[in-house]
Write a structure and sequence with these properties.
Structural class: alpha+beta
CATH topology of the largest domain: Alpha-Beta Plaits
Distance between the termini: 32 Å
CATH class of the largest domain: Alpha Beta
Number of strands: 9
Strand content: 35-45%
Radius of gyration: 19 Å
CATH superfamily of the largest domain: ACT domain
Number of domains: 2
CATH architecture of the largest domain: 2-Layer Sandwich
Helix content: 25-40%
Order of helices and strands: EHEEHEEHEEHEE
Length: about 160
């Protein structure tokens, strides 16, 4: 079982996301991460799906996605031909005495402190899943109060555009 990252360009219309994710659920594949937003044009959205599965089943899902009327393009993002990142907002318990330590950790991970209030600090960090996991491991002794992660999003490298 391999991790697959699919970048799917779809018509920006109601119900499209449900049809796209339905292809995965009908085959009993859990979506590890899902990120959706308007793309370069208001009438197109980019859906980034991370799923762990058998190569053959992912190929079959890709072919079936391409048959959906609302799907414009399906691209598998690979590490050597793509760039991808994740964003996390992490609220860490931080009384005044430990704030400098958390700021040092944030600087080491190129994260930004975006809020300090009421005994907590909220930190914004972007990068690979591994980088975010490593940051969480370092701040966990202080107490992670809340966290929100966007899931992976990415683009193929180079100047070629997928929108037709």
């Amino acid at each position: 079982m391999n991790r697959h990252i699919l970048s799917i360009l779809v018509e920006n219309q109601p119900g499209v996301l449900s049809r796209v994710t339905g292809l995965f659920s009908r085959r009993s594949y859990n979506i590890d991460s899902l990120s959706v937003s308007v793309a370069e044009s208001d009438d197109v959205s980019r859906v980034t799906v991370v799923v762990t599965g058998d190569d053959g089943i992912i190929d079959q899902i890709t072919r079936q996605l391409e048959k959906l009327i609302d799907v414009r393009d399906v691209t598998e993002l690979t590490a050597d031909s793509s760039v991808y990142r994740e964003l996390a907002l992490v609220k860490v318990s931080a009384e005044a005495s430990v704030r400098p330590e958390i700021m040092v950790l944030s600087n080491i991970f190129a994260a930004k402190v975006i809020d300090v209030a009421g005994g907590a600090m909220t930190v914004e960090i972007t990068g690979s899943q591994g980088k975010i996991d490593a940051f969480l491991e370092q701040v966990s002794p202080y107490g992670v109060l809340e966290m929100a992660r966007t899931g992976l999003t990415g683009l193929p490298r180079g100047g070629k555009r997928a929108i037709r």
